[in-house]
Each structure stands twice: as structure tokens, then as C-alpha cells.
Amino acid sequence: MIHRDRGRSYYRATALLPAARRRAVHALYAFTRIADDIVDAGSHEGAAQRLATWRMGLLGAVAGEPSADPVLPAVADAVRSYGLDLAQLDLFLHSMAMDLTITRYRTYDDLLGYMEGSSAVIGTLMLPILGLARGADPALAQRCARELGYAFQLTNFIRDVAEDLARGRVYLPQEDLARFDVTWDTLAADAERGRGGPQVRELIRFECGRALRHYQAALPGISLLQPRSRACIRAAFLLYAAILGEVRRAGYDVMAGRAVVPGLRRAHLVAGALIGRTPAVEVRRWGNAGTVG
Predict the structure, then answer these.
(1) Does residue 58 contact residue 89 with C-beta atoms inside 8 Å?
(2) Residue 29 burial (C-beta neighbours within 10 Å; 0-12, 13-18, 19+)
(3) Position 83 pLDDT exceeds 70
(4) pLDDT per residue over 112-135, tens digit each?
């Protein structure tokens, strides 16, 4: 299963959902992961064509056309069952296509424009699957879901600086690099020796603080979800934010190796989510420990 093999933290969290909702989330994850792989694996022209074919395959599956791909019918079923907005999936694919031509972002607002499609829309798409509690404010729930999408995506960018650099991309804004006297060559030199210098570590500390603020803005949304969905999002929140904790424990040196939350720690966090442990406690702890830049 794509989700189990490629998204371990998120997969553990979705295990807490009822079966029907869990299948929909797995299908949505697989659709987005395959699109991401298309971009990472192919040439510009070939990848663009494959993305277009992937989109047409989804539209055909939603229309009831047979598909040899097992993912597309599953996504189509989620679209029909939960009323997912195809325009949001198109926006996601548009952001994936941006990776074919854009290798860096000047400002954080520019990066947010990319993350609007790559992550914020995923939060929007997840809401109908998770369901809202009776009387919940849909607009607030959507804002919180989008903030959590930004938090997850920025966490990935922080953790994967070296991997993205190897693909010829730097997602962290150029204005942030300049603020800490970091250049593309600085990143490349640190990645080559497998150790981040002081400027790069300060840059990563700053970005961790920015990600933490997105987590903080997302917190109110958990209580707006249907009760059976809250444990899942608590777990996803804790598991992803714990990556920042591992980055901090490594002295913000993301060049020395990929930050991974140990298995026992992941199990502890999932257990905490099951018994209602609030992520707010962890957010405050990380902030007090100096994660905020």
C-alpha cells in the first residue's frame, strides 16, 4: 500500500479513523504521492504529459469509466462519497507542475502561493472526509485545516533540505537565506560534507519557529472535528510536529541526516492521541525549549 510504505507518520494516524474514512484518506494520499513521484522522476516535458494523463484518468474514473490503475477508482469513490471538489485536486496538480519549472522562491508569500496547492488544499479536501462536529464553524475549521497543511509541508521542507537540493530545488525562501547569510553554494557545501554550518543551522531554527506558528494556528480546528476523527488528527499533529523536535535535538543540523522520530516515540504519541492528549502541551513545550525562531 502506497500510504503505508511512503507516509509512515500519517499512515499511523489514519489507522485511528473508521474504515470508510480511512480508505478515502489512503486513496487521496496515493493520488497525491503518485503525482509527486511523476514530477520527481521525469523530464520536464515527459512529466508534464504524465501529470495531464493522470488528471484525465481521474476525471474519467469520476465519470465512471473503467481504469486499469487501482488508485484512480478509489479516489473517484472518495470524490463521490464525500463530495470532494475536483477544482481543489486541480490546484494540487498545478502546484506539482510548478516543480517542473520553479526551483526557488523569493519570499515566504511566494512559497505560500505554492503551498496553497501543495498542502492547504489537502486540508480542505480532508475536512469532508473527517466530518465536522455539530455546530462547528465551517470557515474556522477550513482555516485551521489549511494552517495544518502549511505546518506539515513546511516541516517536510525543513527536514528534506538536502534531498530537495539534490533534486535542484530550494524551497526555503531566498529572503530567509539572505537574512542568515546563506547561499545556494553554502547549502551545497554543507550537504556535501554532511554537516550544517552555523548560518544554515540558524536558518533552520528560524524556519522551525515559523512552522510552529502554523501548528499553533491549526490547534483550534481539532475540537471542531467529529469526535471519531479527532484522535487521528491529534496523532498526525503530534507525529509531524515531533519531527521538528528531532531537528532541534540534532542542533538544527538537517545536513547530518534525515530527522526521524524513533519508533517507540511514535507509538507513545499515537497512544497519547488515543487518550485525548492535547497537542497544545507539546507546542508550548517546543516553544519554551527554543524551537521558535
Answers:
(1) yes
(2) buried
(3) yes
(4) 999 999 999 999 999 999 999 999
Q: Is 132 helix (H, G, I), strand (E, B) or coil?
A: strand
Cα–Cα dist 258/263, whole Å: 15
Confidence of residue 15 (pLDDT cuts 50, 70, 90): confident
pTM: 0.91
Query: Do 283 and 214 form a contact (C-beta atoms < 8 A)?
Result: no
C-alpha cell at 100: 517542473
Q: Is 170 helix (H, G, I), strand (E, B) or coil?
A: strand
Q: How far apart are the C-alpha atoms of 250 and 177, rounded to whole Å?
A: 20
Task: Of 63, 289, 228, give the one whose Cα is nearest residue 75.
Answer: 63
| Residue 29: partners with Cβ closer than 8 Å, 6 or more residues away | 2, 3, 7, 10
